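Annex B, item 7. Sequence and structure tokens for protein A, then protein B.
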Amino acid sequence: MADAGTDDDELIKIVSEAGHLFGPEILAESKRAGLPFALALALVDQESTFQNIFGCDLGSRDTAPWCHQPVTRDRVQALIAHVEGGGTSNGVGLTQLTSIDLIQQAEAEGGAHNVVPQCRVGFGHLHDLIERHGEQVGIGAYNGGEGNPQPDYATSVLGLRDKWQALINRTLLAEQIPAQLPVEPGGKFDAAVEAHLLHIWHEVHINPEISQAVKDEVAAWKSYFRQLKLWSSKHAIDAHHQDELTFGHSRLHVI
């Protein structure tokens, strides 16, 4: 099986061969947020087609809130001043951050004109929405807000997610399908294990002082879920293992 570094190189290559920039940044920030890489790519594809530009919800204009101009530090500052003066906001960058709170978060993370803070805030926000509302409604809320989730938007993003996942699968899966059904690293999967995994997944993402033993346990389960997903692409699995795949996908967002 290829190591993680090799896989990362292949994933970044998928993005570049599709004609897009920012693969390394999107991959790193999707991991940081706990968002599947294919979903992160789908969000960027939907929102900006991988361009660091402003949105154009209010029509063509050469001043704040802008319309499809490249995002720069000065233009972000002008947009913030425009909103604080009572004007309407506009989407910023790869993830089209539009709420002034999200734009300010990106400013605090290194500047809303930079793609890494754009992805960090956007991916983290989407992850949190999915955690609160489930996949379909959470994705719809990224576009319309939690009080007005947009189902058509969610359907479009999920379609793009499937497109990117198919590319990823074709690149990574063929030579990595395990020879045998993988075995759970922590004993039989049950409700207690589910609760434990949810806890340590959360801790790994928020606690920089977490022990190496916990990090290793998370890594072992990530590997297991991925290997099970690979196995299921070529073999029938029983209801127990299907429940594991559903949990790994919908609750842990690792596959």
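Protein B:
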Amino acid sequence: MNTVLRISVREENDAENVVLILEGRVVGPWVEELRATCAPHLKDGHSLILDLTGVSFADAAGIELLAGLIERRIILANASPFLRQQLQLNDSISFLGRATR
């Protein structure tokens, strides 16, 4: 079982939007790695989007981090139905990607 989380950074054309493309599992030490990767982009005032297409699982700490990022107006894109359920997403949360229904 692969427990590595790959984080790729892509700046959009206007350089105000940053997309973090996540691949793997948001677990254990990778939760803090993701937090540390997000921090400078948030500090710089960039609009941050997390593309969760490649995320297969998040543990309790990973779910807690993602939920906290939602509260900071981070946009989550392409979460699996499992992650959506774990995050208890509703219509008031900024979300892009696959339909929930």
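Comment on protein B: The two ends are 30 Å apart (CA to CA).
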